[in-house]
Design a protein that fits this description.
The protein is an alpha/beta fold. It is built from four helices and 17 strands. The strands form three sheets. Strands 3-4-5-2-1-6-7-8-9 form a nine-stranded mixed beta sheet. The longest helix has 20 residues. This is Selenium-dependent molybdenum cofactor biosynthesis protein YqeB.
Length: 265
């Protein structure tokens, strides 16, 4: 059952999906806004996958791509995904909550007047000037904390450490082109194993583990772009479950919403 309240989330990647999931679990009807060709890597836990496939399922939550606002149903129990990177639909929806989870490391046009409560995820925003609150996204002691005065920690470009591995976990495009995968998400891979090709150039795993993410083959990639990641913990089930990081960030979003509902702050 929906609670009669609506939320718009800009972004449909894995972190945004963690937020969407928790909003959905507490009764919000959620519209996710994405680009025409999302750069999402963790496709099995991202509602952005609906842009490519028409539908997506993350854990027990379903998402569907809608072609325009004419198809939007504010009472839907299904997450609706709309290609609208500029956020033009936000004024029409008039959401109770707006969350910017694009993870662009900068503000791409989210302002406090777009909804009664506006929350931003990660660096590039300042509270209370740009938004009502910012949620910290950097792994560590402050992950998921609500920032009402100031900004999140600037992006370092270095991923969080898992079992002693950081940048080694990532797969990056060796040249411009399209990914031709030869392995799929959930497969176990070894150091040096070919995962796919970009422009005829091999993309190889740099750690042993499970292939947790791969960018969609329809997306044109540029040299150096993150196109996949390997989880050295080696548990395939992690490929289909929302991460601790995403849920921690989502908890920060819910804190802002609940504090607003309880005391108007």
């Amino acid at each position: 059952m929906r609670n009669g309240k609506t939320a718009v989330v800009r972004g449909g990647g894995d972190l945004a999906t963690g937020i969407i999931y928790r909003l959905w679990r507490v009764g919000y009807s959620v519209l996710a806004l994405e680009t025409a060709l999302p750069l999402v890597v963790r496709r099995t836990v991202s509602v952005a996958s609906a842009v490519f496939d028409g539908r997506a399922k993350v854990e027990d939550m379903s998402a569907v791509l809608i072609g325009s606002m004419k198809e939007y149903d504010p009472a839907s129990d299904v997450i609706q995904v709309l290609v609208d990177p500029e956020g033009r639909s936000i004024r029409e929806v008039k959401p109770d909550i707006l969350v910017d989870a694009v993870m662009a490391k900068k503000n791409i046009g989210t302002t406090k007047d777009m909804a009664p409560t506006v929350i931003a995820v990660g660096p590039g925003f300042s509270a209370p000037g740009d938004v009502d609150a910012v949620i910290e996204t950097k792994r560590g002691h402050t992950l998921g904390r609500v920032i009402r005065y100031g900004s999140a920690i600037p992006n370092t470009g270095v991923p969080g450490i898992i079992k002693g591995y950081g940048t080694e976990r990532l797969l990056r495009a060796p040249t411009d082109g399209y990914l031709l995968p030869v392995r799929k998400i959930g497969d176990e891979v070894s150091v040096g194993e070919v995962v796919g090709y970009v422009g005829g150039v091999e993309v190889c795993a740099r750690v042993d583990g499970v292939l947790r993410g791969l960018i969609h083959p329809r997306v044109r990639v540029t040299n150096g772009l993150k196109i996949g990641d390997v989880d050295p913990r080696g548990d395939p089930s992690h490929c289909w479950s929302i991460t601790d990081k995403a849920l921690a960030i989502a908890g920060g979003v819910l804190e802002v919403i609940m504090s607003r509902d309880s005391n108007g702050k």
